[in-house]
Amino acid sequence: MSTPANTPTFPPAATDAPATPPTARTRIRRLAENARYEVSTVHAIVDAALVCHVAFSDATGVHCIPTAHWRQDGHLYIHGSNGSRLLKALQGGTPACVTITLIDGLVLARSAFNHSMNYRSVVIYGQFETVPEALKAASLAAFMDRLAPGREGQARPGDANELAATTVLRLPLAEAAAKVRTGPPEDDAQDMDRPVWAGVLPLQLTPGAPEPDPACALPVPEHVERLRHRRF
Question: What is the pTM of this model?
Answer without folding.
Answer: 0.87
